[in-house]
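Pipeline run #58 for the internal structure catalog. This entry was flagged by the ingest filter as a single-chain record with no existing model, so it goes straight to prediction. Upstream metadata was stripped on purpose; only the residue string is passed forward. Reviewer on rotation: M.T. Logging verbosity set to normal.
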Amino acid sequence: MSADIPQIDPLDGLRAPQDPDCDVFLTGTVFLDIIFTGLDSAPVRGTESWARGMGSSPGGVANMATALARLGLRTSMAAAFGDDHYGEYCWDALEQGEGIDLSRSHTVRGWHSPVTVSMAYEGERTMVSHGHEAPALPTTASPEAPAFPRCPPRARAAVTSLVPGRTEPWVAEAARRGALIFGDVGWDETGRWDLDALSGLEHCHAFLPNAEEAMRYTRTDCPRAAARALAERVPLAVVTLGSEGACAVDAATGTAAEVPAIEVEALDPTGAGDVFVAGFVTGTLAGWPLADRLAFAGLTAALSVQEFGGSLSAPGWAEIAAWWQQVRGCAGQDPAALRRYAFLDDLLPAAARPWPLRRAVPTIGFRA
């Protein structure tokens, strides 16, 4: 991180000596992402397309880890890294560049890094990936490889991706040790859309599907109805509504909230869902009201789609502060919309750099 980026601890004032060192723990597969933007249309078979922009960055679970770390949360990640230049680059970018704890990660000798090439055009993306299944992380510690989170670190929260029919034993252990579990989900390739098949859902504090996923899982035809139905299964149901924003229901208090999306010109949606979850986790751990958490998560996601790449585009407090300074200085803003984000006043420093910012570089790293 650059020295001129404001550093904010969103949990300042909430920390105590007996608290865990780790705010958020997560595990998964790290990809090297290569992103092309500025394509006028989808590539056509038999032709060569030139992109006006390109970036490279760690991807996969690194998108979420980076988004969490840039918001000031102490983030720990367990992952396998390839024994190649791509793996070395990703490890360095995450540990040295983002300050993510990789003490539970390890490098696998002779295993190459998975790679995803993403092409962004017309507000959408097309991806091509290659890789082999990541070797299982070790279940016992060794000098070369720390133990996989069968016994995960004590953490305030953990983020997991729920997959039908797949059990992640560490999730139950993390919940038993006091972590709030935040679960997201992908498209159900089985087509059954059975909530009972999502092993780990019973441990989740919050479940965060998108509108289509939520409606299919609950057999409803309205995202708001889906959120209410999901709140019967989890303490906190959050449904993202794309360009319409997000809604949520807190089962414990009966509170419901909905916040509209911020209108932006999207360059690349890669990683926006991860950034949304990271923003919501941040607000939850900080104890913010439900509507503020939704607004903050939506804001961070909106800032991310104006950049390209997954972890490349995750905003930090400098981007958030610069955006808030800019919108308050623009004439004709809706006063009600400004009030929706007034909670930022108590959080943000003066913006150190103008908005928008650009992070991406067209290579995996320059030699010193």
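catalog note: Residues 276 and 297 are 5 Å apart (CA to CA).
catalog note: The two ends are 17 Å apart (CA to CA).
status: ready for reviewer M.T.
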